[in-house]
């Protein structure tokens, strides 16, 4: 079964093709036959495309067109033409899976995309303005290029639909609940994948584990996972809530927003920009939203960069503590995504706070760019895992399972 996965971002569209046997779904991730990426530049109508295949062929070029759909269509063209060809014809694709950031309350599980599903994804634009429109563009690009192929929506909010009301409902007026204002949580595909992979690595049944998964990238969120189900998470009604992130502020006193709107002549648009694009590591350090650049500035004696690091670690530890309280114990702490997988300093700083609980990392293992292994010390009471998140493989798995049904 050939499965195409599209993962839409605010300024990019990524594609992956997997060939999964019809009979059995492998336990571990397969390598994609083909990977494509379109990055949109600030120049209208121009995009950068990069394609590579499992056999090592690479294509890089600038492409031109009237719309993002045209750019995606060109990326798909490379699937069946030129040096990066991996299928004879696009009709060989059996199913296309899409990462959709927000499914609201209507969609808790992956679904085959219909006109009603497309309409609902569109209705949720205001809750995920950087991502849901891009996902819908991808869906429509597939309709243009592949016709009536089965398409599946896999929702980032779906895994967190098991949150208990006490964790999901905000303590505002009850009318908010009736309006759908609640904690949805995000990065759910990643958290779910990492929980399952953690159980494999530990040789344990997922339903017996208490896990905290730390998805730390430019966007950051934690999830408390008990018996395979998400019971708490840091992101909320939008991806702005929770931890300090690359350029997002995370949780702050809502009174600050009222103050700024009243006293500083902030427009809603300016406030949105400041909270999402000019806060977090970027806002405090004045250097970058990229952690390695902030760390480089610290090494050069930049006090604001040091402050950004200190705040980041404080919020990360506080978030882990909150998840720990929800779980009532912990079997494994999991680090994933760009920062979680690559920063030994972040992992050590996060773990140092919990030595009083008997959690200890092996300093040597932590420094060795570990992937999909346990880096806890042998006498640690809690296992510490570094897992390479594979959201695209997880989406492909969901597509395979839906087609089998």
TrEMBL record:
Requisite cofactors: Mg(2+); Mn(2+)
Pfam families the UniProt entry points to: Acetate_kinase
Site (Transition state stabilizer): 187, 248
Binding site for Mg(2+): 7, 391
PROSITE patterns (UniProt xref): ACETATE_KINASE_1, ACETATE_KINASE_2
Binding sites annotated in the UniProt record for ATP: 14, 215-219, 338-342
Residues that hold substrate according to the record: 99
InterPro entries, sorted: Ac/propionate_kinase, Aliphatic_acid_kin_short-chain, Aliphatic_acid_kinase_CS, ATPase_NBD
Active site positions, chain numbering: 156
Gene3D superfamilies hit by this protein: 3.30.420.40
Subcellular location: Cytoplasm
A Gene Ontology term for the protein's cellular component: cytoplasm
Source domain of life: Bacteria
Co-factor binding details: Mg(2+). Can also accept Mn(2+).
Class of enzymatic activity (EC top level): transferase
One GO process term, biological-process aspect: acetyl-CoA biosynthetic process
Pathway stated in the Swiss-Prot or TrEMBL entry: Metabolic intermediate biosynthesis; acetyl-CoA biosynthesis; acetyl-CoA from acetate: step 1/2
EC number(s) recorded for this UniProt protein: 2.7.2.1
Keywords: ATP-binding, Cytoplasm, Kinase, Magnesium, Metal-binding, Nucleotide-binding, Transferase
Subunit structure: Homodimer.
Entry-linked NCBIfam families: ackA (TIGR00016)
UniProt xrefs under PANTHER family: ACETATE KINASE (PTHR21060), ACETATE KINASE-RELATED (PTHR21060:SF15)
Biological role stated in the UniProt entry: Catalyzes the formation of acetyl phosphate from acetate and ATP. Can also catalyze the reverse reaction.
Family the entry assigns: Belongs to the acetokinase family.
The name this protein goes by in its record: Acetate kinase
Taxonomy of the source species: Bacteria, Bacillati, Cyanobacteriota, Cyanophyceae, Nostocales
């Amino acid at each position: 079964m050939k499965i195409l996965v599209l993962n839409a971002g605010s300024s990019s569209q990524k594609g992956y093709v997997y060939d999964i046997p019809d009979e059995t779904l492998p336990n571990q991730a397969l390598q994609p036959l083909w990977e494509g990426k379109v990055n949109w530049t600030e120049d209208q109508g121009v995009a950068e495309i990069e394609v590579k295949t499992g056999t090592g062929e690479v294509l890089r070029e600038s492409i031109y067109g009237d719309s993002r759909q045209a750019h995606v269509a060109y990326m798909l063209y490379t699937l069946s033409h030129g040096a990066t060809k991996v299928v004879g014809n696009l009709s060989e694709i059996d199913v296309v899976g899409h990462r959709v950031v927000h499914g609201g309350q209507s969609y808790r599980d992956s679904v085959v995309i219909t006109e009603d599903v497309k309409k609902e994804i569109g209705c949720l634009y205001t809750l995920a303005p950087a991502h849901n429109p891009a996902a819908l563009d991808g869906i429509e690009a597939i309709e243009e290029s592949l016709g009536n192929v089965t398409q599946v929506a896999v929702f980032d909010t779906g895994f967190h639909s098991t949150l208990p009301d006490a964790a999901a409902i905000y303590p505002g007026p009850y009318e908010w609940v009736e309006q759908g204002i609640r904690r949805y949580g995000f990065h759910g595909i990643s958290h779910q994948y990492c929980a399952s992979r953690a159980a494999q690595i530990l040789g344990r049944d997922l339903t017996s584990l208490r896990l905290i998964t730390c998805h730390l990238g430019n966007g950051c969120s934690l999830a408390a996972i008990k018996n395979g189900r998400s019971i708490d998470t840091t992101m909320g009604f939008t991806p702005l809530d929770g931890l300090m992130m690359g350029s997002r502020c995370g949780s702050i006193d809502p009174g600050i927003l009222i103050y700024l709107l009243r006293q500083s002549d902030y427009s809603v648009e300016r406030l949105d920009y400041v909270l999402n694009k000019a806060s977090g590591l970027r806002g405090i350090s004045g250097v970058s939203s990229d952690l390695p650049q902030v760390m480089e500035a610290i090494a050069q004696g930049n006090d604001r960069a040091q402050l950004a690091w200190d705040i980041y670690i404080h919020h990360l530890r506080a978030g882990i503590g909150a998840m720990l309280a929800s779980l009532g114990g912990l079997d494994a702490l999991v680090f994933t995504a760009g920062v979680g997988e690559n920063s030994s300093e972040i992992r050590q700083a996060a773990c140092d706070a919990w030595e009083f609980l008997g959690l200890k990392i092996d300093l040597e293992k932590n420094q060795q760019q570990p992937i999909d292994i346990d880096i806890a010390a042998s006498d640690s009471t809690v296992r510490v895992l570094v897992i390479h998140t594979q959201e695209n493989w997880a989406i492909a798995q969901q597509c395979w399972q839906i087609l089998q049904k």
